[in-house]
Amino acid sequence: MPVRYIVWSSAPRGATTRVRLRLASGVIRRKKVDSDGLAVACPIVRHFTQASAQLTEVIQNRICTIRDIVLRFVYYSDERYDKRSVRIYEIKEDGQQVQIYNFFHPLADTTLGTTTEYYRRLASTGNEHRAGHIEWTTRFQPYVYWGGLQPKVGTKELRKIKNKSSKSRRFKVDGTEYKWKIKADGQGLVCERGRGRVVAEWNEPTKTLRVSSDEVPREEVLDRFVVTCYLNLWFWYGDRW
Q1: C-alpha distance across the termini of the chain, in Å
Q2: How far apart are CA 163 and CA 160, in angstroms?
Q3: Which helix (H) or strand (E) holds 2?
Q4: I need a surface site. Which of 90, 195, 228, 234 has the fewest CB within 10 A?
């Protein structure tokens, strides 16, 4: 009986990508496969037959069993606002784009004591909800308030450095540690869990963030990935990684 697994890839043709095989026993095995011809628009459902050890691609009307969350960042065109002000749209399977986040930061001529308010569109009602805010004591010293009720969290927790030589910036969600790092080609960021398992990716040329839906059991968890990506982009753009 074939074993089903999901893979998406933005790798160039001819490259290889790592995928996870989830066996009937629940064991997860990793394998490298040729990504030649993989579609980028949505995840691809494949089947792995243990008897023949061959991969057979199955694409049915571009309908995916599991879809990653794809978000596009649109920065304000008014040059008086810096990159801390951004509207974020979710790209649906049909190509429709729906605004899901709005980060608003005061005009860039004020550098001390400013606050970024960020709002999220509630899936249940479609209404905009104030999800939290970020206080900036300096341009590179932010403190995040999740939902406005929890204690503030600084960069020591949201961009934790393991050691002086580390290039990863770590954070935790519900006790699980993740780490952001700059891609080897310098064209974006990647977020990993455990030993190299990619769960989110920022593509700089397209200004899109892709998050694995497996990692987002509720909307508040998506906030963690969006806000940490937002902060790491700010540090990266400011040459303060």
Answers
A1: 47
A2: 9
A3: none
A4: 195
**Residue (of 139, 147, 157) closest to 223 by Cα position:** 147
Contact status, residue 166 vs residue 181, Cβ threshold 8 Å: no
Q: Which of 142, 126, 133 is nearest to 219 (CA)?
A: 126
pLDDT at 25 over 90: no
Q: Which helix (H) or strand (E) holds 120?
A: strand 114-121
Are 137 and 150 in contact, with CB atoms under 8 Å apart?
no
Running DSSP on this structure, what letter comes out for residue 42? S
Q: Which residues contact 95 (CB under 8 A, 6 or more apart)?
A: none
In this structure, are residues 88 and 103 in contact, taking their beta carbons and an 8 Å threshold?
yes
Predicted confidence at residue 226, as pLDDT, reads: 98
Q: DSSP character for 220? A: H
pTM of the model: 0.72
Q: Is 234 helix (H, G, I), strand (E, B) or coil?
A: helix
Neighbours of 68 (CB within 10 A): 21
Asked if 128 and 121 touch (Cβ cutoff 8 Å), the reply is: yes
Separation of alpha carbons 179 and 196, rounded Å: 10
Distance CA 28, CA 23 (A): 6
- H or E element in which residue 239 lies: none
| CB-CB neighbours of 70 under 10 Å | 20
